[in-house]
Structure formats: C-alpha cells, structure tokens
Write a structure and sequence with these properties.
This protein has 13 helices and six strands. It has about 375 residues and is mainly alpha-helical. The chain has a domain of about 70 residues.
Length: about 375
C-alpha cells in the first residue's frame, strides 16, 4: 500500500503538524505509521500536558483523547510516574497551584495513593479526568505495578469502567476472578472496595472465592466484609458452603472450621466479633491459624480509607442562609470543620454533600449551610 503524503514527511515536520492540529489523536488512530513516527517522550509529554492538565470546552473530545492516552501501550506506570514527577516538581503538589496550596501532597505516594488527602478546596488537577479505565488495568496477571497504577487512578481521578462495552465488562469480571485465583489480596481489595470496578460482593462471589479459589482466608474475609458492608447478602444461609465446611473439617483442614465460625456469626448478626488494633508500621492485622503455619493460611486484614468517614480541616467559601433567601459569600476561616462523607466511590466533583459548621467567632450568630463537592479521594 502506498503511503499518503503526510506519512512520508520527516519527523521534524510531523511533530509541529501534530501540535498545530490541536494534538489530534485521530491522526494517530487513523495511521499506525504516523503513530510510530511520532513515538517519542517529547510528543508523549506534550500530549499528556495538553489533555490531562487543562479543561477543554469540548469535554467529549477531551474525554475520548484521555481514554486513548491511558489505553496506549506507551502509557505505562513507569512513564506516568516519571511524567507526574517532572510536570509537578516546580509546584510541589498535584493540585498544580503556585499559590494557595495549603496542604502540599509531595512527593506523591505512588505505592499507596490512598495516603494522599485532598479536599474540595484543594483538588488535584486529575480529579476531573473522566475517561474510561483501560482494559489492560482490569485483568491479570496482577503485578505490583498494575495494582499501584489502578489504585492511583481510582483514588486521584474520576475514571470509570465502560460497562456498555461487552468486552470490557467481561475483562473486568474475569479480572476479579483471576485476582482471587492468584490469592492477590491487594487486587481483590480494589474490586471489593470500589463500586466503579463492578457490583459489590455477594454470596456467589464468596462461594467462588471459597470453593474454586482455595479459600484464601484473607481474600475470603475481605470479600465477606464488603458483602456485609454493602448489604448485598439478604441471607447467609448456603447449603453449599455448609457442606464445604463439613468436608474440610473432616479432612482436618482448619479453614473449614474458620469459615464455619464466620458464617455462624454472620447468621446471628454478631459479625465482626472484635476490633483489633492495627500495627502502625505495616498497617495490617495478621493472625495465624495455630495448627497450620502455611503462608497462605495467614489471615491479613487491611484497614482501608475507601469507605471510612474522614474528619478534615481547612478553608471553605461559605454561604449563610438569610431570611431574604439571598446568598452572600464570605471568606471565613473555620478553625474546625467536621464532615462524614459516604463511600468514596460515590463521591466526585458532581456529588455535593450537605455540611453543618459551628463557628467559634462571636460575630457570626447563625450556623451556615455548606455544600461541598469532594473529589474522588474524599
């Protein structure tokens, strides 16, 4: 097949043409040869700055381009970390502000993005990325890099899975199952704690983890915990699980007795039994079955920030309720603002929360009504 005129141009001319076109990724999608000719970190960096750091008038075009960027082979976890570090090193925070940044999150915690705290008055620039999560991050094998990349995008951005695409749906469902087969607790936790990655765990999910994936106690416990949290299980009665427990007990497998006890507590509404103290160094709770010292039989419980209420302090622009139904905005520094948001995956730039504040200043006689739209990380 003969080349088109633009495909035969030298790279020195192709790059300015691509930039002048408004970083039109349709050019790259239409011609694999053009995409290959423009494959350089210089082009990648510029394209990411254009689509990931600004808000365009045509959000449909921007969202489509963002989806293409994250789905590209060159968008690896190593590249993304490098690009973020280079791009935001001068400002020293993912919010990108040179002034007004009162709680800089720097350097970014790439290994555990949930340790970074943002608020409505201190948003990361990525909070408004509403692209689709790429399939490559929804399936195994579940490597540490893939898990960290997916966790970062879920925590910092508003990206979601394209459930209208049948192939993507199948990949996400199978990715969850594969995480259970691999006994990968970190990957399983992402699916269990984030409704953006699929439906909440239910009894069928627990049966799969127990009967088809070897009943890794850490995986099963987290799945039971979130099924109980979301209220997806109306009845914990399950003859299949009961038979499995009895068979395992007769074989001398301690997992059978452990699961039998957990199910009995769930059925009597006494679960969980205790609140353990968390090791501040490892941030995990580890229990070993006395009669079995196999590594895979260790029960690890990891406290998560995904669904827990958070207390925060900071600056807010507030509007007190007036008798004339007018709103007057004040720049007030509240010494203490307490709020309790719902599950994090339901929070986003478009999800307002009603907040009540109690001012300490004697000059303010009424408590104002605040509406806060937290980012995904709040």
């Amino acid at each position: 097949m003969s080349l088109s005129g633009i495909e035969g141009l030298p790279v020195e001319l192709l790059q300015p043409i691509f930039f002048t076109s408004g970083y039109n990724v349709a050019l790259l999608q239409a011609s694999p040869r053009l995409a290959a000719r423009l494959s350089s970190n210089y082009v990648y960096d510029a394209t990411c700055r254009y689509y990931l750091m600004t808000t365009m008038l045509d959000r449909t075009v921007q969202t489509s381009a963002q989806t293409y960027i994250f789905a590209s082979k060159w968008m690896t976890w190593a590249f993304f970390q490098s690009w973020i570090t280079k791009t935001y090193a001068l400002t020293g925070c993912l919010c990108g502000r040179t002034e007004g940044c009162f709680d800089a999150q720097w350097p970014p915690d790439f290994e555990n993005a949930t340790s970074m705290v943002f608020s409505r008055s201190h948003l990361p620039q990525f909070a408004f990325i509403k692209a689709r999560l790429p399939r490559k991050l929804l399936c195994g094998p579940w490597t540490p890099d893939k898990i960290q990349f997916l966790r970062f995008l879920l925590w910092i951005t508003s990206m979601t899975v394209d459930w209208s695409d049948t192939k993507t749906l199948q990949v996400a469902v199978e990715g969850r199952r594969q995480a259970m087969r691999e006994y990968n607790l970190d990957a399983v936790e992402l699916f269990n704690h984030n409704r953006r990655l699929g439906r909440g765990a239910d009894l069928s999910t627990i049966r799969f983890a127990v009967m088809e994936c070897g009943c890794d106690r850490s995986v099963v416990y987290d799945t039971i915990s979130m099924a109980n949290h979301w209220g997806k299980v109306r009845s914990w009665e399950c003859a299949e699980l009961d038979r499995w427990c009895e068979e395992r007990i007769s074989m001398g497998d301690p997992k059978g007795l452990w699961l039998q006890i957990e199910l009995s507590l769930l059925r009597s509404n006494d679960w969980p039994v205790e609140q353990e103290e968390v090791d501040p160094a490892s941030k995990t709770i580890t229990k070993s079955w006395e009669s079995n010292d196999e590594p895979q039989d260790r029960l690890i419980k990891t406290p998560h920030k995904w669904n827990e209420p958070v207390l925060q302090r900071g600056w807010l622009m507030v509007s007190p309720r007036l008798s004339m139904h007018l709103r007057v905005t004040h720049d007030i520094q509240w010494p203490e603002i307490m709020r309790m948001p719902g599950p994090r995956m339901y929070c986003g730039p478009s999800r307002p929360l009603r907040i009540g504040c109690h001012p300490t200043s004697n000059t303010i006689s009424t408590s104002p009504l605040l509406w806060l739209a937290p980012p995904t990380s709040c």
